[in-house]
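Lay summary. Proteins are chains of building blocks that fold into shapes, and those shapes determine what they do. In this project we predict the shape from the chain. Here is one chain we studied, written as its sequence of building blocks.
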Amino acid sequence: MKKTFQLYIHYVTLTIRSMMQYKTSFFLSVLGQFLVLFTVFLGILVMFQRFNAVDGFTYSEVLLCYAIFLMAFSLAELFARGFDSFSAIVRTGEFDRILVRPQSEILQVLGSRFELTRIGRILQAAVMFVYGVTASGIEWNLVKGFTVLFMLIGGMAVFTALFMIYAALCFFTLEGLEFMNIFTDGAREFGKYPMGIYGEKIVLFTTFFIPYALTQYYPLLYILGRADSVLYVVLPLLACLFLIPAWLLWRYGVRHYQSSGS
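And here is the predicted shape, written in a compact code that computers can read:
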């Protein structure tokens, strides 16, 4: 386990060194990631200038919700971007080389791409989070602090699982299936508001099929004092189980992989 971790750190170090060869490009990319998402921030602001609340959620509460969800998504992109670009690895036959190496395929795919520019999104999410915390008037305690941490861990796990599913499907299609972006980039967009505002059917879908609500809606209710059940605190950790079917699909894809012939 120690050697595996050291190898992953080595992969990350190599990626960072390559990015630092073009420092200006890197910092401009981070700045661009930081600034572009402020259009979303302004869009929410404009809407709340017309409406005082959305399904009972105020502006600061929505920002708090979106900040945590965006940070979880950005962290998943930061570490699991290799799965998102996996179609190129299969199409070019690079995965054949991965299979003959005495290391885990998942480790090698994760190490193939480390999207450090996503730091810009994480910084922007941090700015929105700080504003949401100060403006919402929440009485914070240790349990609520752990709830936020669990939301980040669970959200990261869910999006990583989705990236893994996307990669696993590439074993059979060679090209990436663009409809999967509905569940990643699309989820980042509609996740700016609590899942409850979209209706009961969406809440059920995002609870039992793709567990966004376990990492966003239910723990948010606890943080805002709208639910008292301590179960809502640990629900984000339960969402981590979504990694299991994603991993099983990945293993199925590896077992049935045939070289692309490139």
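What the prediction tells us: The radius of gyration is 19 Å.
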